[in-house]
Design brief:
single chain, globular
Amino acid sequence: MTTVSCIRTAALKPRARAFADYWLSLPRTDLIPYRRDFEPGALAGILNTFLIFEIVAPDHFLVRLAGTTVIEHYGREITGQNYLDFRTPQERSITRAAMTLIATHPCGQLVSQAVRTGDGKGRISESFGLPMRDDAGRATLLYYQVDDIRLDDFKTREERYLLEKKTAIRHFIDIGNGIPDFPHVGTLS
């Protein structure tokens, strides 16, 4: 399922909202800020929940940074690895297409999906991503803030559905350019 929201009014969890508000405060060129303007200290309290990717090639999303909470989620260090290697063949093409659109359209993305963490427990992972420009001005960086909702905290029908059906739900966020046409619902194995 794909829906749209404006970045200023999107229903985001508190840490994702802090990231969105900070991202909106940065100077932007063609809707996207530069990495050099991102001051990590401004989000020091939530950096442990960040994943930063660099689009190196169409099939290579290099994990530039994985916060400590994200590392715990995966059960190991993932910095320096290709994020697509963590996806099943079925998920890989959908994930690649959705993440590429964040940089090329550009837009934001909120993904909710059922996952099994490094400790083997079921979780809903909610990832909020926005594009950033590298020092050369290319939109090749994706900054994600990741929240996990513990199994015993599942309260909404959508969260229970995600865990039961193992489905990813993508919400594209309008950052000033509308949203891309992306009808996919990713199925997790």
